Amino acid sequence: MILRQVRQLLYCLIFLVFSGCAQKTTVVLLPDPAGQVGHITVANKAGSVDITHPAEATVVAGQDEPSAPEILTDDEIAAKFSKVLAALPAQPVHFILYFKTNSAELTEVSQKSLPLILQSIKDRKSENIGVIGHTDTVGDREYNLILSKNRALAVRNILVQEGVPAADIGATSHGKENPLVKTGDNVSEPRNRRVEVVIR
Amino acid sequence: MKIILGIFLSLVFFLAGSEHCLAQDDSFGIVKSVSGEVVIFNAQRSLSAVPNMKLNQGDSVKTGGAGSAGLIFSDDTVVALGPNSEMKIESFLFNPVDQELSFVARLFKGTFSFITGQIAKLAPKNVKFETPEATLGVRGTKLLVEID
């Protein structure tokens, strides 16, 4: 009886040791849709490897140090990753709408972008749209938080009037903290008076 | 002892979670696409994933043998899980106003593809993916991970 338990325990241990050793992590770097190639550092207690070129890969087996970088062929990548690459959603689409100074009223030019936004919502079958209000740096922080919020709500209202369900739209506001064009404080900058629309 | 520790940890998790809820809606992403069996779960609940389901701090995503899932996060990061895969979002903070930027995920098994978003651009040091064998520091791009 005890012998059998000991034997079972031994099998468990052997399984654990071998499955632990057999397991490995493979990391592959690819260019993003804009063609940019980033930089990944793969590290464990035994060492660290940087991969920096398109299709470059490193493998970490068990507790060994990461393997030297190696370029994989398209076929090697497809064999392991075709399913997970096919399941990757398209990146969200961004639009920027500009506003008149010190106001939650769209500029005439930006009013003309509204049909493009509505079309994109349809094309992506999006039920998750973010509107993020921003201001330029004229005025204090609190004032601009309110102004940026009013801009976001104005865009939300326009989309709702055009038939987008209100529940699909999340409105947030960043005040003057997240300018498109970096300026000093108290600088009037039309490109920063904006609402970003993110269609997910 | 283990049970007491478990209760304590769930309590800490619960309190931390509820405090965050007071601050704002803490969902940071959505399920964009689902194929086959996909489950979203955390300490409190487990749900079959459907498109547009929201993801929150501490949620895990798990796919079945024929499953796959596509996720979109609020900083434009897009993620896919292939069959038999599991990941947990340990921390996701995208709040440029207060300079709170962090993306930490634990990858347990399976295949993953990522295109990283604005957090990786604004605060690359705060993007970390942990696998059973290694830690990945990611400075902006598309990457693939397989754990087998």
SSE map:
The complex is a heterodimer of chains A (200) and B (148).
Chain A: H1 2-22, E1 24-30, E2 39-44, E3 47-51, E4 56-61, E5 70-71, H2 74-86, E6 93-98, H3 108-111, H4 114-123, E7 129-133, H5 141-161, E8 169-173, E9 194-199
Chain B: H1 2-23, E1 27-35, E2 38-41, E3 46-48, E4 54-56, E5 60-63, E6 68-73, E7 78-81, E8 86-95, E9 100-115, H2 118-122, E10 127-130, E11 135-139, E12 142-147
Parallel strand pairs in B: 9-10
Antiparallel strand pairs in B: 1-4, 1-6, 2-3, 2-5, 5-8, 6-7, 7-9, 8-9, 9-12, 10-11
Could you describe the 3D structure shown?
Chain A is elongated, with a radius of gyration of 26 Å. The mean pLDDT of chain A is 92. The N and C termini of chain A lie far apart (60 Å). Chain A has helices at residues 2-22, 74-86, 108-111, 114-123, 141-161, and strands at 24-30, 39-44, 47-51, 56-61, 70-71, 93-98, 129-133, 169-173, 194-199. In chain A, strand 7 (129-133), helix 5 (141-161) and strand 8 form a beta-alpha-beta unit. Chain A has five helices and nine strands. Chain B has one domain (27-147). In chain B, strands 1, 2, 3, 4, 5, 6, 7, 8, 9, 10, 11 and 12 form a twelve-stranded mixed beta sheet that branches. Residues 9-24 of chain B have low confidence and may be disordered. At the A-B interface, strand 1, strand 2 and helix 2 of A face strand 1, strand 6, strand 7, strand 9 and strand 11 of B. Strand 1 of chain A pairs antiparallel with strand 12 (142-147) of chain B, so a sheet runs across the interface.
Describe the structure using short key phrases.
heterodimer, A: 200 residues, alpha+beta, 60s Ribosomal Protein L30, Chain: A, 2 domains, 3-stranded antiparallel beta sheet, elongated, B: 148 residues, 12-stranded mixed beta sheet, 2 helices, 12 strands
